[in-house]
Amino acid sequence: MILLVVGILLFAGVHLVPSLAPALRASWHGRLGEAGYKGTFSLLLLISFALMIVGWRSAQPSFVYMPSAALHHPALGLLVIAFVLMVCSARSSRLCLLIRHPQLSGVALWGIAHLLLNGDSRAVVLFGGIAAWAIVEMIAINRREGVWVKGQAPSWMAEIVTLVIALVMVAVVVYIHPWISGVPVS
């Protein structure tokens, strides 16, 4: 479980540096330059993912609560919405006119949905930790960036393409989920 916690803390810490520690980010960027900053940022995130995956697979879970069977299908629906939000964050979408942080909102929904589906200790640590990070990150970015300036609405065809990409992403994740987590999607 320690590797899982360290992975989550590293992931959250690296992401929170630009918003909560701008002087550290400026120093890091100043010493390493743009490419060095992005490279070390990416390397630290890859390490955090590796720690989370290894930590998840090596942790001995104990039950914290029993998930409600009645919430299984709604949680799966939340996961689809989470992926739509994550995909539309990289594309022009009308959802981006309604939700300031679609990617982070998607990550928070992803974590919450997993908490509805899983009641073991490692799930609470991983999904609760990542959902909490996403919410803190949204607050920190809002504080850093101030007033939200909305973009223009894309064409309906662009919206359809975004939805198709999201559904393909859901299919890919369902397919690789057992390999990544050791748990099939059911």
Summarize, please.
With 186 residues, the chain is mainly alpha-helical.
Unreliable spans are none
User: Can you give the mean pLDDT?
Assistant: 91
Helix content: over 70%
Measured distance between first and last alpha carbons: 24 Å
Total count of strands:
0
- Measured on Cα atoms, how large is the radius of gyration? 18 Å
* SSE class: mainly alpha
Question: Biggest β-sheet: count, sense, barrel?
Answer: none
H/I helix tally:
7
Task: Describe it.
With 186 residues, the chain is mainly α. It folds into two domains: 1-59; 63-186, no CATH class. It contains seven helices and no strands. The protein has helices spanning 2-20, 22-58, 72-88, 95-98, 102-117, 121-145, 156-181. Helix 1 runs antiparallel to helix 2 (22-58), helix 3 (72-88) packs antiparallel against helix 5 and helix 3 crosses helix 7. It is globular.
Key traits:
186 residues, 7 helices, globular, single chain, mainly alpha
Layout of secondary structure:
Layout: H1 2-20, H2 22-58, H3 72-88, H4 95-98, H5 102-117, H6 121-145, H7 156-181
Helix pairs in contact: 1-2, 1-6, 3-5, 3-7, 5-6
